[in-house]
Amino acid sequence: MNKLLTLFMGLLLMSISFQSFSQMLVAYVCPPCNNQCDTLSFDKPGVCTHCGMPLVLKNESKDKLSPTRKKIAFYLQDGIEILDFAGPLEVFTYAGFDVFTVSKTKAPIKAQGLLTVTPDYSIQDAPKADILAFFGGSSNAPASDPDVIKWVQSQQNIEHYFSVCTGAFVLGEAGLLKGKTATTFHSSLDNLEKSYPETKVLKNVRFVDNGNLITTAGISAGIDGALHLVAKLNGFDAARKTAYYMEYDKWTPGEGLILAEYNPYKALANVDNLKLYTGTYEFNNGSKIQIKVSEREKGLYAIVRDRNYPLFFTKENTFTDANGKETITFIRDRRNRITGYTLSQDPKVFHKLN
User: Fold this and answer.
1) What's the predicted TM-score (pTM) here?
2) Could you give the CA distance from residue 215 to residue 198 in angstroms, rounded to a whole number?
3) CA 164, CA 166: separation in Å to the nearest integer?
4) Under 8 Å CB-to-CB from 137, ≥6 apart: which residues?
5) Average pLDDT in the 344-352 region?
6) Which interval of the chain is the signal sequence (predicted)?
7) Pick from 27, 75, 157, 298: most CB atoms within 10 A?
8) ∠2-4-10 over CA atoms, to 5°?
C-alpha cells in the first residue's frame, strides 16, 4: 500500500512539474514599441500593462503567422509613398493584425527614394492573406505589370481589399472597382474616373467603404481608412483605443462614405446621453477629476492632472479605461440623477461636485 501511495505521489509531482515547465515555455511579450516594456514577458495573453499594446507569443514571427489573427498583405513597390503604408501599418499592428509585406520579388525597394524596405515575400511565395492592401507612389508600376495583376486576381477568399492613394489603380486594373464607388489621391481623381468609367469616383471624401473593398484618399487618409476597417472587424472601441495609442487626435469616426450594409458607428452611445455623465467629481487624495464628452469621437474622457484618459462604454453607467483594467461605475439617485462613481479597484464612493 505504501509503495502504491509513493508511486502515485511521484507521478502527481511529475505531472505538476511538467505542467509548470510547459507554462514556463509559453511567454507573451509586448511588440517592440521603444519603451521599457520591450524587455518584459508575461505568462498570459492580453495587453501590455505599460503601453496597452496587445501581447503576442514570444516565439511568433512573420514566418509563423498566427492562425487566429487577421492576416494583411501589404504590396510594396519601388517608389512607394512612406506614409501611405506606414500609417496603416501602425494601425493594423497595434490593433492585433498580422501584417506582412509582399513585392514582385524579394529585392529591396526604396520608399520615396529614402527608406530601404526588404519585402517579406515575393508574389511567388506569399502566404494566404485575409486582406490585400495597395498603396500610392509609383503605383503605375504594379498596375501595369501583368504578373502582379494576375497575382491579385488569383488570390482566393479575400475578405477585404484596401487601397490608399493611387493604390486604387491596382484594384482597378484587377477589375475590382467595376460597379463600385471609389476615391484616390486628389490629383489623380480625374485619371481614375477616365481609366475606369464603370466606377463612380468621389472627391472630398476620406474613404469609401463598399463592403469588402475600401479605398481612401491620399497619404494620411490611409490612417482613417485603416481605423475604419479596424472598427468594422474588431469594433469601434478597438479603433478608438488604437487612435488614442497613436495620439491621432484628429480622427473623426466615420468621416467617409459608408455604402456597406454594416456601419460600426450606428450603435455608438448617444452623445446627449453621454453628456449626463459630465461634471467635476472627487478623486484620490482630495484631488478632483473632470468627465467631459468628445462629440467628435463620440466618447467620454476623464481629465486627471491635465491629462486626458478615454473611457470606453460597456453598458449603462459603466465604462472601462484603455487597458480594460479599471472599471468606473456611475451611481444614480432615486431621481435618476448621477451623484458619483466607484472604481473596480477602490470600493470608495467618489461624489459628484457639480
Assistant:
1) 0.80
2) 16
3) 6
4) 77, 79, 80, 81, 82, 84, 111, 112, 165, 166
5) 92
6) 1-22
7) 75
8) 100
Contacts of 313 by beta carbon, 8 Å cutoff, 6+ apart: 237, 269, 274, 299, 300, 319
Looking at residue 318, its amino acid is T
Q: Provide the sign of the torsion angle of the four alpha carbons 19, 24, 30, 36, taken in this order.
A: positive
What amino acid is encoded at 83 in this protein?
Answer: L
Strands (E), 104-246: 109-111, 115-117, 121-122, 131-134, 160-163, 181-182, 200-201, 207-209, 213-216
DSSP secondary structure letter of residue 64: B
CA distance 212 to 224: 16
| Residue 19 in grid coordinates | 505542467
Amino acid type, 106: K
C-alpha grid cell, residue 200: 463612380
Write the pLDDT tens digit of every residue in 3-49. Answer: 555 555 555 445 544 444 444 456 777 765 545 666 677 777 777 76
In sequence order, what are the residues at sequence separation of 6 or more whose Cβ sits closer than 8 angstroms to the Cβ of residue 167? 75, 84, 133, 134, 135, 136, 139, 215
- Other residues' Cβ atoms within 10 Å of the Cβ of residue 354: 5
For the CA atoms of 75, 77, 83, 87, what is the dihedral angle to 10 degrees?
Answer: 10
Residue 17: CB partners within 8 Å, gap ≥ 6? Answer: none
Element (H, E) at 320: strand 318-320
Report the greatest alpha carbon distance in the chain.
90
Coil, strand or helix at 220? coil
Counted residue by residue, the chain has a size of 354
Query: Tens digit of pLDDT for each residue in 218-276?
Result: 999 999 999 999 999 999 989 999 999 999 988 999 899 999 999 998 877 678 889 99
* Residues paired with 218 in a beta bridge: none
Mean pLDDT of all residues in 129-135: 98
Q: Residue 263 — φ and ψ, nearest 5°?
A: -120, 110
The structural domains of the chain, ordered by start, are: 61-258 (3.40.50.880), 271-351 (2.40.128.50)
